[in-house]
Specification:
six-stranded parallel sheet, 10 helices, Arc Repressor Mutant, subunit A, alpha/beta
Length: 222
């Protein structure tokens, strides 16, 4: 199965949601450092409404969940949401509240805040844009088996070798071939060989597409 028609050069318009203004500003500054992400607005959970979304028309919401659980929407907001959780214990309530609202017509994501980079968030948002679920492996283990099965693609791709898995993990962190080569103590040409093998086995056209597919298979932690 191939993720088709991925446009990696179109900015994803984001509305950042969070309880505290300074925290929202910090997350916005982090995400602005990534290519293809555009922060168009910020809001607290209490300010979030269909009217606000109609004004700004974001492609996705990035919702920073603090130590205290926020009041979650009671209606479908009509846009994909990527929740950034401070604790895996928050995942169950968010999943059970949001999935019935958005059903199968919109993707949803849950990732842990720490450790997290702008590049990892970008990959998660690109996966949402392609209609895929994004569930941090550390979070997926606390979901029920039936729920977890719905969040992943079937593991139909050819298995990767241990070395290819190492390279894939560094690809997910956004590292270039030369840096991966230094970390693993191999040549850049060898890294390039492994990257090409990974793309072939995952039926991917780019490094980003490979990371998205591997994430959905539970092979990498974003």
């Amino acid at each position: 199965m191939r993720i088709a028609n991925m446009n990696l050069h179109t900015d994803i318009r984001l509305l950042v949601v969070g309880e505290r203004l300074l925290v929202r500003m910090g997350l916005s500054a982090l995400l602005q450092s990534a290519d293809n992400l555009s922060i168009i607005a910020q809001a607290s959970p209490d300010e979030l409404s269909a009217q606000l979304l109609d004004v700004y028309r974001p492609d996705s919401l990035v919702w920073l969940v603090g130590d205290e659980m926020p009041n979650l929407p009671s209606t479908d907001l009509g846009v994909p949401i990527l929740f950034l959780l401070s604790d895996v214990a928050q995942a169950g309530r968010i999943w059970n509240t949001m999935r019935p609202l958005i059903g199968d017509h919109l993707p949803m994501g849950m990732m842990l805040q720490h450790p997290l980079s702008a590049g990892q968030v970008m990959v998660g948002l690109m996966a949402l844009r392609e209609g895929l679920m994004v569930i941090d492996p550390a979070i997926s283990v606390i979901l029920t088996p039936s729920d977890e099965a719905d969040t992943r693609l079937s593991a139909t791709s050819e298995s990767l070798t241990p070395r290819e898995m190492q390279v894939l993990q560094h690809m997910a962190a956004g590292l270039p071939n030369k840096q991966i080569a230094r970390i693993l103590g191999i040549s850049p040409n060898t890294v390039k060989f492994h990257v090409n093998a990974i793309l072939s086995k995952l039926d991917a056209q780019s490094r980003t597409e490979a990371v998205i597919r591997a994430t959905q298979l539970g092979w990498v932690l974003l």
